[in-house]
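Raw record, unedited: Diaminopimelate epimerase
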Amino acid sequence: MKLEFYKYQGTGNDFVMLDNRDSILPKNSTKLIRDLCDRKFGIGADGLICLENPENNTDDFKMVYFNADGNESSMCGNGGRCLVAFAKFLGIIENSARFTAIDGPHEAIVKDGIVSLKMQDVEEFKEGDEFIFLNTGSPHHVSFIDGVSHLDVKKEGAAIRYSKLYRDGGTNVNFVQEISKDTFSVRTYERGVEDETLSCGTGVTAVALAASFTSKTDSEKVKLITPGGELSVSFKKQDKKFTDVWLSGPAQQVFKGDILC
Ligand SMILES: N[C@@H](CCC[C@H](N)C(=O)O)C(=O)O
């Protein structure tokens, strides 16, 4: 079988993109997706995303996300932004989009190469010993530390992801250092990739909200510096509830191809 694919990246979080409106991806493709995402034997990516037909009259398309391990997972913020750029490339949308992902409906705007994606409202925070846990479409453990650039993120992230705190579903883990009152440096260990990725959209969203929740910032627009580039998150905070949450940053097509599988 020959599969046509596109490769996208958003601040270095990279994805195989399939136009699956005609169901080109066979059902139960866990091994195939894992093989396509393999960096030595396949295309190489942190995940694979299918653009599918919308399930209602108001959406432009539907998003289905798989981690590099081949399993369907929760929301991917950078992947959602890349999918919007892909939908624009395919001529499905112009400069705005509405779509549904596993965590519910999303809106997006494309302007000057920047894709801004509206994320779900957040009002549940768990405060632990030197960490905050919240769900921004995907689960995130956020830990504010010093010396983030020297950290062994794979080792320390895996220890938290597999700890008894998160035994059932696991979690993504973000290590964060404050640079200034509205700027934070973030490195993320991603569940389902089981390694550090260059950037994580739901992760930096969690970091921005956690920084505001813990009064580390009083700004409603936060800049996040990841190893793959810069993202921003804006929101409205009312007491401990966060609404109108937008994740913004670049999303680019890297190449297209056909792969035999
Ligand atoms: N890279 C993503 C997060 C993808 C989901 C995550 N690996 C999980 O399974 O929870 C992002 O940009 O949000």
